Amino acid sequence: MSIVFIISAPSGSGKSTLVNRVRKCVPGLEFSISYTTRKPRGHEQNGREYYFITREEFEAMIHNGEFLEYAKVFETDYYGTARRFLEQAERDGNDLLLDIDVQGAAQIKKKIPDAVSIFILPPNRAELEQRLRNRSQDDEAVIQKRLRAGSREIVNYHRYEYIVVNDRLEESVKTLAAILLSERQRRMGGADAAQEALAEKSRLARVRDRLQPILQSFAETAVTGK
């Protein structure tokens, strides 16, 4: 039985970089490429970052029950995870890694209660804004929209089992890999003490105090409107 790993994060938190790095160091891991109705950005390619399809094609897939989860993001474009990726992972004897938003994560947890959920957080709101600007992919209106969406998304952190604060990339990669490997080992009846200890540091119950300044940075911005 494949383990389903859910990874969510506000746009700009470095989630894609983390996922790409961890896929290189954790074997037996398949990655689900999401479908979307939005247009490609920059150097994005169909079948690499996303499968870019029309709204009509997406809605036909919904009608045919082809999605494990789907959602409309920013009230404009659909994003969804095709069921076929889980079926393929199970045939191959691999685990499945899903890079999805909080709406999709809630749908997956309802369908697959033992899925492992991981939330990636930026060090603070200012750092998130800087990362969005450094990408040079979006105009000011879109950046502000993503920041507002990020503020709404992070309040869902308590729904996740693990929280990784992505302030130092190398450490975050090691932590994320440890979470994946320790969960796999635990379900197989084995254990690696070092991996398990590193993963446990990111358990929700163990990081609540560390999260308070991060959450406060978003709350203060919401109050001041800056």
How many separate domains make up the residues?
1
**Within the largest sheet, what's the order of strands?**
2-7-1-8-9
The CATH H-level superfamily is P-loop containing nucleotide triphosphate hydrolases
Q: What is the count of DSSP helices, taking H or I runs of 4+ residues?
A: 9
- Overall pLDDT confidence: 91
- The CATH topology is what? Rossmann fold
Radius of gyration: 17 Å
What is the CATH first-level class name?
Alpha Beta
**Looking at the structure, what is the overall shape?**
globular
Proportion of strand residues = 15-25%
Largest sheet: 5 strands, parallel
Based on secondary structure, the structural category is alpha/beta
Task: Tell me what the CATH architecture is.
Answer: 3-Layer(aba) Sandwich
Which parts are unreliable, with pLDDT below 50 for 5 consecutive residues or more? none
Helical content stands at 40-55%
The helix/strand order is EHEEEHEEHEHEHHEHHH
Distance between the termini: 47 Å
- How many extended strands? 9
Quick overview of this protein structure:
The protein is of the alpha/beta class. The protein is built from nine helices and nine strands.
What do you see in this structure?
By secondary structure, the chain is α/β, with parallel strands linked by helices. The protein is built from nine helices and nine strands. 50% of the residues lie in helices and 18% in strands. The longest helix is centred in the last third of the chain and has 21 residues, at 204-224. Helix 1 crosses helix 7 (169-187). It has a five-stranded parallel beta sheet, sandwiched between helices. It has a four-stranded mixed beta sheet with strand order 4-3-6-5. It has helices at residues 15-25, 55-63, 83-92, 102-111, 125-135, 140-154, 169-187, 193-200, 204-224; strands at residues 4-8, 29-32, 35-36, 51-52, 67-73, 77-82, 95-99, 116-121, 162-165. The model has no long low-confidence stretch (mean pLDDT 91). The chain has a single domain, classed as Rossmann fold, CATH 3.40.50.300. The N and C termini lie far apart (47 Å). It is globular and about 45 Å long.
